[in-house]
Amino acid sequence: MPLYHPFLISAARASRLVEVLKYKPVDRKVRPVPTTLPEEFRIVRRAPADILADLPQLPLHPPSFSPGLRYTQERYDEYPVDIAGWLSEEERRLVEWLVLTHEHVFAWEENEKGAFTRELFDPILLPTIEHTPWVMKNIPIPPGIYEDVCQVLKTKIEAQVYEPSNSSYRSKWFCVLKKDKKSLRLVHDLQPLNTAVPATADLIC
């Protein structure tokens, strides 16, 4: 995938952005350790007795849109449900009613994202093999994107994606540009973690 060197991103504030395509050779990949997964670390999923029991009944004549807590008028105007104009008036109102009724499952902002309910999933524990904690020095944040990076970090803390820690570990991370060519995405280098966790034999059926 295209990567953007952080120092090039800094220079892009005053000039054009330089793209760098970088691929990791297969022989440099760091893979998890092939070993047995202890039983207490297996993920247990619990399905509700009747997943359809609490679903609201579809209206035969859906009402016109009215703003909700998340599905606001601004978001309604910005994200029309029928851009191509394929739906009839009643079909369009039905889709809008569905989005409004289940608006809590949509996340327009980072802090609106949720997590798996503990009714269906227990907190996931990460098994590790015996290893020495790693503390890796990160590359400096270029001054040109310093404020942007701080804002990304604050947003993730508010959304509880990141939280304070007194762990013995520290991994590297870096920034890449998103497809909009202006927003930043933080990428964490967890290759050292792969050397300390058991591999899983997941199959796609």
Automatic annotation (TrEMBL):
Database matches in Gene3D superfamilies: HIV Type 1 Reverse Transcriptase, subunit A, domain 1 (3.10.10.10)
From the Swiss-Prot or TrEMBL record, give the protein name.
Uncharacterized protein
Taxonomic superkingdom? Eukaryota
Q: Which SUPFAM superfamilies match?
A: DNA/RNA polymerases
